[in-house]
Amino acid sequence: MNDVLLFVHSGIGRITLNRPRALNSLNHGMVRAIAGQLEAWRSDPAVHAVLIDGAGERGLCAGGDIRAIHEDARAGGSASLRFWADEYRLNALISRYPKPYLALMDGLVMGGGVGVSAHGSHRIVTERSRIAMPEVGIGFVPDVGGTYLLSRTPGELGTHIALTAGSIGGSDAIHCGLADHFLPSDRIPELPDALASHGPDAALELLTEPAPPSDLAADAAWIDHCYAADTVEEILARLHSAGGAAATAAKEIEAKSPTAVKVTLHALRTAATLPDLESVLAREYRVSYHLLRTAEFAEGIRAQIIDKDRSPRWSPATLSEVDDALVGSCFADLGDDEPGLFTPGR
């Protein structure tokens, strides 16, 4: 069985992630196949737009193949680095694709799933959408351009999403700028033919409807106040002081990797100052490179994915032990290992 299905139907290039038993998680072969097909469709006059979706009923994509990355990390290998380099190139390609790129973000969309969808030109959510960048829970940092996207949400909503690793619904995703259109799930079967008959914009106008109110928007006041602080420690102090849902958020952050939480906050603040997605992806690659070599990342995957005991032994174990030097080391230049991720002008 092919892990990704690639075909053209009535002028629409179709990409279907086809690992439903693994929640359509991405492996290196899938990333390369998608990128190669997008390059071919770029200049194909028979292809007017592209639609990506996921096989099965559970979601578009749960992220990268974490088990494979865990094995590579434990073995001290470099396969994950090659995967990430190609994955980040794919994210950039999607963001500047010259034809309409529609992403059906139905069901679960996590990590790498966000990377192949939220950089597209037409991003579609449903009432079943659950979108997350949960990396801090496994000792990692949002990548695939996640820090670019989350640093550009209204106020501090992206900081809240990243540090708690929580999932958001379709309405929240639209409010945060991670999606554009709300499509009731019972109308999904109509989408391919509507695209072929009417084109992307007219089809979406025909099928979509206004999204319900965003829960995050209603919480913006305390989120913006608490997460505007300069340090994780001060953010936690403000959250605890605010009480209620804010205090619950603080407890969620405190259960995550202290290193990952501090590195993520720095990554978000930095991403907000960088000029484009490519520059953020290049910075994210450095962080991914350094974290792959830490026991923290392997331990986080072990606790959450492999053994599922949900009891990671973080090291350093406390925020106070994660100093500026440790955080800065995760962004250090890679020297000869720095890849040329992007071709200028592409």
Automatic annotation (TrEMBL):
The protein's Enzyme Commission number: 3.1.2.4
UniProt keyword annotations, A-Z: Hydrolase
Entry's Gene Ontology cellular component terms: cytosol
The organism's place on the tree of life at top rank: Bacteria
Catalytic activity from the UniProt record: 3-hydroxy-2-methylpropanoyl-CoA + H2O = 3-hydroxy-2-methylpropanoate + CoA + H(+)
Domain Enoyl-CoA hydratase/isomerase: 12-331
A single GO molecular function term of this UniProt record: 3-hydroxyisobutyryl-CoA hydrolase activity
Gene Ontology biological process terms from the UniProt entry: L-valine catabolic process
NCBIfam families named in the record: PRK05617.1
Protein name: 3-hydroxyisobutyryl-CoA hydrolase
